[in-house]
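Structure ticket #2291
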Amino acid sequence: MVRPAELEEDLGRRDFTINAMALRLSGPRTGELIDLHGGERDLAAARVRILHTKSFQDDATRMFRALRYAGRLGFQIEHSTAVCLRRDRSYIDAISGTRVRRELERIAVEERVGEIIQLAFRQGVLDAVHPVLGSDGAGRKATKELTTLAVSHRDSVLLCLLLAGAAATDIEVVTGRLALTGRQAKAVSGFVALQDVLAELARPGLKASQVVDLLGPSPVESVEATALVGSRRVAGRARRYLEEWRFVRPVLHGSDLERLGIASGPKVGSMLKALLTAKLDTEVRTRDDEAAFVERVMREQRGRRRG
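Resolution: structure written out below.
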């Protein structure tokens, strides 16, 4: 039960010394800093320090917050705090998957997310969640690029990067352990599936339409993660897909095709697909080009039927 507490008691419940300070807002000592735990000193020294040696045992999510604040502020984790953190990593097992996942989601939107993830890896926090998390160096390194993505995508892409190179069985365990949302689970699953087409994506001479066929079925977050860890050619094609090719559409619509003489039904869909392929591969550019393309295909089909 939450109950009112004296100021000193309230400050003593805080996570770190740097957020266990208060300022008097009234009375003859208005403006006085109340600092019972050396927060001002730690702030000046740019360090994150817990209030007591059992702090992480009381609330293991403080480990993630310590990493997040240190990364965000460019602070160091004070030595004895780091010792306690490494000693008490096993207490992460007592945290629900949802709470751990939310801590990772908060890290994903930090401006210095890459530094925080590297720190979490060095301190063994990721390993304490599951040994496979962050074990791939390329995936870990790529987390620094998350700030270039839309905020709404960063959590899913972070999870993909942290699971880069992981075996399917490990990914299944982590998905359950972190209680991933449906969107996040689909992104991770799509990222794993894309590993099977990387060789094809890297093939010289691949057309834009072929790239779209390979990447189109995957969630955008899966493709974004692939763009961050793929080879130069794969990354370049994935970015072209994300920024340009997935938005390409023919100017002509189904009703336009029917006016050109195509019977309504499956044939309209097939022609629109052929038209999209032609547009992606720059065989057509304008509305007139598209109409000429449709008429040419129709003539060829009539010729084949006569033959």
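Closing remark: The two ends are 85 Å apart (CA to CA).
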